[in-house]
Amino acid sequence: MTLSDPGGGVLPLDTAPPELSYPGLSPQLLARVKQLWSASGLDFDRAWRLGLRPVPGFRPVPRMELAANSAGVDLVFLFDQCLLWVRALHAAAHAGHGHQVAGLSAAQWQGLAGLTARLTDQLAALRLLALTGLPMPAMQIARSVSEDADMALVLLVRPKLAQTFADCRTVEEASDFWRRHIAGGRAFKTVSERLYAVGIDHSADTEYAGWRRQVLATLGAAVHSNALQTRLPETRGPDSLLNDDSLYFATFRVHELCAFAQLIEPAFTDLLIEAGAAARTEGTGGLAALAAPMNAIVVNQLHSLTAPEPPQARATARH
């Protein structure tokens, strides 16, 4: 993604259509997305203003120079809907915990609310970094997004572990929990086992698992700048630190979080409907009510998500 305005430009007026914040967006993708929203009985423009405009640091996508196609803008557009869904999921989880919605334990609702609050901050920061041309810290955040997505799924799978997480009161306890149950692929292993039970094989020797390990290793290298400077250019060329890679991986993982949550907890959408209804009783159901119907929208957008081109292909397109 080559940006013409690192400052992000001027955000259109509140009443302006959302697409004005995505110059160069594919008309076909926009039409498809609006059709998905309409089919779910939702007003996309209203939801976008409610859930995305207030995000700290939100800015329009700068016009991209020398772009061969709309892929970069399309990616941000899909990423933003993931951010909107995570915000809606947080509101629903908060209501689910506060109103003791049956189907998930209080600890599961609490853990889901806490993780989606953190995911919201991470996604907002990742967006800002990507649009201002700061790919290295964006890579670090993308790795954290992936870990939190796995952890959210684990809390749905293991209620007792969710209670252990809720019982953490100190930094030391939280660090110990992370080391024992999440770090080193432990969370992903737990999720993979449950997915295998419903017919999806993501075991360690699959192509998907290998791709995941490779991406996470690349993102993890961003934490160690010396290693990144000496290793990544050799393996991927001088154009290796690209914003699109972090945005793509984070978007893909949120898509997976949405899809897998519905597979490992078949009542997930119904529970979110109840949580959204509970939130409406206290006048705070705007975002919470979006979580359940957005499940189908987010999963459907997996078909629209396209992996960024290899660095060599991008370099060729510029010349």
UniProtKB/TrEMBL annotation:
It comes from the Bacteria. This is Uncharacterized protein. It comes from Pararhodobacter aggregans.
